[in-house]
């Protein structure tokens, strides 16, 4: 922030007015088990519904229902091909951390804490009881960072029982947790011609639609804060 202040004072003052837990990773908590501050999931889902937004309400809901049926089936096909205890994305991150961990040296303090030093002046403290590292990646993401894996390698070299590596990850990254999230399915329904007729005496008619001049807008409307 001090370096940023010398670059742009006005932007520095604007950021100082916002609570740091809303934008600074250093103030995040491990409750969400994620270090992302983006709404990419919402943006991806929103982009998939572009074709259904122009439809009437019931047709739009039917479009979303059919999309979710297809989406769940595609995810299940990917899950059947997965091997190992972790999800594919978590497995890739762990493989990188394992490769980097071999370049670190570990020093034990005699209790439950370790000092881990790397070749790039990268030195952190790992507490195996509290399961935290001073780099905070283990706490934020739920995945053991390279410093933690280096400590586990050192303990294994000294004859200690450390167990499987995936047991040190949060359960949200386990493959069985991912499968449990897709246990529930979207039920298929009959066609609209076979739907029961409502017994309500009042018939609701749709409003008169008038096409606006110009090309219809597909993108969502940005809020005033996003525009600023």
Automatic annotation (TrEMBL):
The superkingdom of the source organism is Eukaryota
Q: Any idea which UniProt keywords this protein has? A: Metal-binding, Zinc, Zinc-finger
Report whether Metal-binding shows up as a keyword of the record. yes
Give start and end of each SWIM-type domain. Answer: 114-156
InterPro entries for the chain: Znf_PMZ (IPR006564), Znf_SWIM (IPR007527)
* A GO MF label: zinc ion binding
Does the keyword Metal-binding belong to this entry?
A: yes
Region annotated Disordered sits at: 206-228
Q: Which SMART domains match?
A: ZnF_PMZ
Q: Which PANTHER family match?
A: MULE TRANSPOSASE DOMAIN-CONTAINING PROTEIN, POLYPROTEIN, PUTATIVE-RELATED
This one is known as SWIM-type domain-containing protein
What is the scientific name of the source organism? Lactuca saligna (Willowleaf lettuce)
């Amino acid at each position: 922030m001090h370096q940023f202040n010398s670059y742009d004072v006005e932007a520095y003052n604007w950021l100082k007015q916002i609570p740091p837990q809303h934008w600074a990773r250093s103030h995040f908590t491990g409750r969400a088990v994620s270090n992302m501050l983006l709404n990419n999931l919402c943006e991806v889902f929103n982009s998939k519904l572009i074709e259904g937004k122009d439809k009437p309400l019931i047709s739009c809901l039917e479009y979303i229902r059919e999309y979710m049926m297809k989406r769940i089936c595609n995810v299940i096909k990917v899950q059947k091909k997965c091997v190992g205890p972790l999800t594919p994305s978590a497995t890739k991150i762990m493989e990188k951390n394992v490769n980097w961990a071999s370049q670190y040296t570990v020093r034990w303090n005699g209790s439950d804490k370790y000092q881990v030093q790397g070749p790039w002046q990268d030195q952190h403290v790992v507490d195996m009881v509290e399961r935290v590292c001073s780099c905070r990646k283990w706490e934020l993401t739920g995945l053991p960072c390279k410093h933690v894996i280096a400590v586990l390698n050192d303990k294994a070299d000294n004859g200690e029982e450390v167990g499987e590596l995936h047991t040190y990850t949060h359960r949200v990254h386990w493959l069985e947790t991912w499968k449990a999230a897709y246990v529930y399915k979207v039920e298929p329904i009959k066609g609209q011609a076979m739907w029961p007729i409502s017994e309500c005496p009042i018939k609701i008619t749709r409003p008169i639609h008038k096409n606006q001049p110009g090309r219809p807008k597909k993108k969502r409307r940005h809020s005033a804060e996003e525009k600023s």
